Structures are given as structure tokens and as C-alpha cells.
Amino acid sequence: MGNQARVPDESTVFSTSTRNFDNRMGDGAQVYLGSAELGAVISNLGRMPTVDEYMEVYREKIEPKQDEIYRYLQFDEMEDYL
Q1: Tens-place pLDDT, residues 45-67
Q2: Counting Cβ atoms within 10 Å, is residue 31 exposed (0-12), middle (13-18) or buried (19+)?
Q3: Where are the domains of the chain?
């Protein structure tokens, strides 16, 4: 959900935004905040995953590429960065 979105009252939604307070996105809306990584898993499942489901996706899709995914970006040391 984006920063300006409104959802139906009493909805449950996931957001990667840092803005979360009561009734911000809808009256009685429950907003769960999380990482873009978790957002990708949720978008593929269409719902919040269980811990086991999340870990299965993590082991299959993320862990094998963790050196590419989780790295500190030192832009001043990248030849192709202008």
C-alpha cells in the first residue's frame, strides 16, 4: 500500500511504508509493516505467510543468492556508477 492509499474499513493490509498509525489507511484497518522481501512473498501468495511458508521461500529463492541480495552498496567504489 502506498502512503496515500485508503482501504475499506476493517481491512488488513501489508505496507513497506514507515507510516503506520491507527486509522491511517482506513477506519479500523490493521496495517502490518515489513520489508520489501516480505512484501514480495506476500504478493506471490496473496496473503501473509506462515513462518514455515516464509522460510520455505527464503531457503528456495533468497538464500542461494544472499551474496548478491545482501551486500553493502559502496557507490563510490563502483566503476559503472556515475
Answers
A1: 999 999 999 999 999 998 999 88
A2: buried
A3: 1-34, 48-82
